[in-house]
Specification:
By secondary structure, the protein is mainly α. Helix content is 59%, strand content 0%. It has helices spanning 2-15, 42-56, 82-114, 121-129, 135-167, 185-216, 240-261. Residues 1-12, 32-53, 232-251 have a biased composition (Basic and acidic residues).
């Protein structure tokens, strides 16, 4: 243990370093405010710029004037006004579509008038084409269909049930002992009494056999066996981190005292 402790102390000392008192250094990376620039006289600068621009500026050459009879709409100079082109095209397209829709609705209405009237499901198509959907009519129609189906099914079921009831007839040869699915309390109670009596007789016979077997067997003598396992009392748990920290503090205190007591070597 001593060797291990000494090794641990040496390792700890090699790791341990006394904290150095660092002096505050003025860091050169701190923000240094810039010197304020002199204010600009914008009017003065603008005047100077205008004078320079006028000295550079050259008047454009006089171009040949076009005759007044020429206009932009009459002459094609190879340019394409996309905005004007798209607007005209869209108007033409919308006009054609509107005409087609009107013609189609007229044709469809003629067909509807010519055909004989059918179920309300065809009227739904007309609503869809005209751009409207009558949800109330659709829900009512579905409900009516469901009710008609239900009434038909109920009638069929009742007729089937009556037929099955009429076909089942009790035969005269049946006796009280036959099981017809009825629950009779008297028969059940008698059966339970018989079962309990049989169980009591069996238990008596079993006890008589068991007592005979116990009397026949010799009882083994109890020996005080010292080799039996005796569980130890559980020790309290150790907090190793706490113990180590306390030990390190004590060791440091001792080490510092030894260093102070030792005389300094002369150079």
């Amino acid at each position: 243990m001593r060797k291990e402790r000494k090794e641990y102390e040496q390792k700890y000392l090699s790791r341990y370093k006394q904290p150095k008192i660092q002096k505050k250094k003025v860091s050169s990376s701190l923000y240094k405010p810039e010197k304020p620039k002199p204010k600009l006289d914008m009017k003065k600068e603008r005047k100077e710029y205008e004078q320079k621009y006028l000295s550079r500026y050259k008047q454009p050459k006089s171009t040949i004037k076009k005759s007044t009879s020429w206009t932009q709409h009459d002459v094609d100079l190879g340019r394409l006004n996309l905005r004007k082109h798209t607007i005209t095209k869209r108007r033409e397209y919308l006009g054609k579509r509107k005409d087609y829709e009107e013609k189609y609705i007229l044709r469809y209405m003629k067909k509807l008038k010519a055909e004989p009237k059918r179920s309300s499901s065809k009227n739904l198509d007309h609503d869809l084409i005209s751009g409207r959907l009558n949800l109330r009519a659709l829900v009512d129609k579905k409900r009516n269909e469901l009710q008609t189906e239900r009434t038909k099914y109920e009638k069929k079921y009742i007729s089937k049930y009556k037929e099955s009831k009429a076909s089942i007839k009790k035969p005269k040869s049946l006796t009280e002992s036959d099981d017809l699915g009825k629950f009779t309390i008297s028969t059940k109670t008698t059966a339970l009494k018989k079962l309990r009596a049989e169980r009591a007789e069996y238990e008596k016979q079993y006890l008589a056999r068991y007592s005979k077997q116990r009397k026949a067997k010799p009882k083994p003598k109890k020996k005080a066996d010292s080799s039996l396992y005796k569980p130890e009392i559980p020790k309290p748990k150790r907090d190793m981190k706490k113990e180590r920290a306390e030990y390190e503090q004590k060791y440091l205190a001792r080490h510092l005292k030894q260093r102070k007591t030792k005389p300094k070597k002369k150079k």
